């Protein structure tokens, strides 16, 4: 599967944060987006740990984007959310690292690898700004 709920919730949360003038905490985001609070908290912690958002403590605390939203790519967000580069198929990215050593004989691998490369380029060119409008 290319993207899971982790990516969906990360993207929705980051869009909400990008549109806000003030930090947004997990309680607010959870209610606003109808996302389970504990699940969202883990996603937001991971986004903070990977320098996509900054976390501010206190009464007026919450999350803000660490850099401008036109500099945060969808590939970056989904890779952090999924904890790996999202893939269309469970296959090796190179012939030499094929776990079954059958990549040279596999007629499907070149097509799927090409598809994955195109998706990666698309997600790398697409920014949070592009989807937050």
Question: How would you describe this protein?
Answer:
It is a single chain. By secondary structure, the chain is mainly alpha-helical. Helix content is 50%, strand content 6%. The protein contains 6 helices and 2 strands, in the order αααββααα. It has helices at residues 5-18, 26-33, 37-49, 74-82, 109-125, 128-132, and strands at 53-56, 62-65. The protein has a two-stranded antiparallel sheet. α1 crosses α3, α1 packs across α4 and α2 (26-33) packs across α3 (37-49). The longest helix has 17 residues, at 109-125. It is elongated. The mean pLDDT is 91.
Gist?
The protein is mainly alpha-helical and 133 residues long. It has six helices and two strands, in the order H-H-H-E-E-H-H-H. It has helices spanning 5-18, 26-33, 37-49, 74-82, 109-125, 128-132; strands spanning 53-56, 62-65.
| Helix coverage percent | 40-55%
Strand content: 5-15%
Whole-number average pLDDT?
Answer: 91
* SSE order: HHHEEHHH
Strand order of the largest sheet: 1-2
Compute the number of strand runs.
2
By secondary-structure content and strand pairing, the structural class works out as mainly alpha
Which runs of at least 5 residues are low in confidence (pLDDT < 50)?
A: none
Shape: elongated
Oligomeric grouping of the chains: single chain
- How many strands, what sense, and barrel or not for the largest sheet? 2 strands, antiparallel
Distance between the termini: 26 Å
Number of helices: 6
Indicate the radius of gyration in whole angstroms: 17 Å
